[in-house]
Specification:
alpha+beta; elongated
């Protein structure tokens, strides 16, 4: 059982989308106005000399960001003997990250970032079920330096290394640092922990394992 409210993430992303659309729209309007103004102006009697530039001799030595993400299909965590499939999920109607029906598979939040690209990709898994331990039952046993291996359906791989793990109250998790943008290529694994409340069928805390792309 694991749920994570991501309404804050949606609110953070919406202004970015609005700015992008506004910039594109304003650019079109400004360009159109400039063309109309230019047509009304008198053409110069003499054409100015054109100038040319040559490529910088350092162009080939500039370091470019080659990081790209994958749509994950499988996950392997050798340290806790996990090897299973990944389902792409979105949000539930109440704004929480959706979960998998199976207790043996994991869920990737597909509206967020792809594992391997800059940003915080998120994969969640159940900790247990009525029948016993589930896929992320031993997630809390991961240590700094342990590896998480993701592959897409074609076998392309991204390997991540555990940096840290933290527990948060279920309703006070730092959503921006878990789901939001990061200059690093991060993968955050989440599951439930703490005490189980039978009346609400919810755990009191969430465990987050922070990992980063292996260079």
């Amino acid at each position: 059982m694991y749920t994570m409210r991501v309404v804050l993430l949606v609110l953070v992303l919406l202004p970015i989308s609005a700015c992008s659309a506004g910039f594109s729209s304003n650019s079109t309007v400004d360009e159109h106005s400039t063309i109309q103004t230019a047509e009304k102006q008198e053409k110069p009697k003499a054409q100015m000399a054109t100038t040319t530039t040559t490529p910088s001799p350092y162009a080939d030595t500039i370091i470019k960001d080659q990081r790209s993400g994958i749509v994950p299909a499988t996950i392997e965590i050798p340290a806790i003997d996990v090897s299973t499939s990944i389902e792409a999920v979105g949000l539930k109607e109440n704004g929480e990250m959706a979960v998998t029906e199976s207790f043996e598979t994991t869920a990737w939040y597909q509206s967020g970032y792809k594992p391997g690209e800059p940003g915080n990709a998120v994969i969640g898994g159940h900790v247990d079920s009525r029948n016993g331990p589930a896929v992320f039952y031993n997630l809390n046993k991961l240590s700094k330096g342990d590896e998480i291996i993701l592959k897409d359906k074609d076998g392309e791989k991204r390997t991540f290394v555990v940096l840290d793990k933290k527990e948060y109250p279920w309703d006070e998790s730092p959503l921006k640092s878990i789901f939001g943008y990061s200059a690093a290529s991060s993968l955050n694994l989440i599951t439930c922990t703490g005490d189980f409340d039978r009346s609400s069928r919810n755990y009191s805390k969430r465990l987050v394992v922070y990992t980063e792309l292996k260079s």
